From TrEMBL:
Pfam families: APH. InterPro entries: Aminoglycoside_PTrfase (IPR002575), Kinase-like_dom_sf (IPR011009). Residues 5-194 form the Aminoglycoside phosphotransferase domain. This is Aminoglycoside phosphotransferase domain-containing protein. It comes from Paenibacillus riograndensis SBR5. It comes from the Bacteria.
Length: 267
């Protein structure tokens, strides 16, 4: 690999690749179908007019798969929030508006269905007993299925800004109910453990920013979508349980389990 490294996430390394292009090179343990799925969803959303980097080509390099994308010369919204926290309110509203715009698109069933994906993750979730999973699964069954395009991992590190806002990272794109996609975003903004060594001031500042981002986002998302808080909140229990299968820090999983148990008690 020769290009300048410009980013690294949980699934891939991102580097410059020729003029105006980047290569998102997935780790060897990421199944090829997941990469193909990201490529297909990216092509679909790009074609539908969502502001997303143009997917150019699927490539194979030895054991690893990659996707060539149009390069965006900007920073992630997360980084901008860190640099200009006084503009947090604007960013929160912009995030809600981007999310609501993508929910206007129909989500092809071939991308996979939200409730099916949640069901299998809840069944596989570590740290919960069968007695806890059963009511979560019952709750999921009662929720209304939808047919909209969902991002599945919509947060400010998956939005790049260069004057315009570009939504990236479509590996978890699927078809379903936007309320569940919004619930997942709210859960990610409001929870998420800090590294064990984080100082008290970091904890306080981060806590404050998280709270303001969550409130600003949900207020605007409800306003734009016409959904009620209860309609979104109803998805938190299944969405939080499903998240336990993800490769997130143990402290964050413990926080999720506390929240899940609290919600199960108050049902
Ligand atoms: N088209 C692009 N143009 C410029 N930079 C990009 C582009 N796509 C990704 N990046 C950079 O690479 C980083 C990681 O990209 P992306 O979120 O797609 O990867 P990931 O490994 O799936 O991340 P995650 O940890 O969220 O799973 C981004 O935060 C951004 O800095
Ligand atoms: Mg990402």
């Amino acid at each position: 690999m020769t290009g300048k490294r410009i980013g690294e996430g949980r699934t891939a390394e991102v580097q410059e690749y020729g003029t105006g292009k980047i290569l998102k090179l997935y780790r060897a343990d990421i199944p090829a179908e997941y990469v193909e799925h990201e490529y297909e969803v990216s092509k679909y959303v790009h074609k539908q007019g969502i502001q997303t980097p143009q997917p150019i080509e699927l490539v194979t390099l030895g054991e690893r798969k990659g996707i060539l994308f149009q390069q965006i010369h900007g920073s992630s919204m997360l980084r901008l929030i860190g640099e200009k926290p006084w503009r947090l309110g604007e960013y929160a509203r912009q995030l809600a508006s981007l999310h609501h715009d993508l929910h206007k698109l129909q989500g092809p069933e071939a991308f996979g269905k939200q409730k099916e994906s949640l069901r299998s993750s809840i069944v596989a979730a570590p740290m919960l007993t069968m007695e806890e999973k059963t009511p979560v699964l019952e709750k999921l069954e009662q929720l209304p299925e939808g047919d909209r395009l969902l991002h599945g991992d919509f947060h400010p590190d998956n939005v790049l800004i260069d004057g315009q806002a570009w939504t990236i990272d479509w590996m978890t794109g699927m078809s379903g109910n936007p309320a569940g996609d919004a619930a997942r975003s709210v859960m990610m903004f409001s929870m998420g453990a800090l590294p064990p060594g984080a100082s008290l001031s970091t904890r306080l500042v981060t806590g404050f920013i998280r709270q303001r981002l969550t409130k600003g986002y949900i207020r605007e998302y409800l306003r734009l979508s016409g959904l009620s808080y209860a309609e979104v909140n109803a998805w938190v229990l299944p969405v939080a349980s499903a998240r336990l299968t993800e490769g997130i820090p143990l402290a964050e999983k413990e926080q999720l389990v506390r929240e899940i148990r609290r919600r199960l008690r108050s049902k």
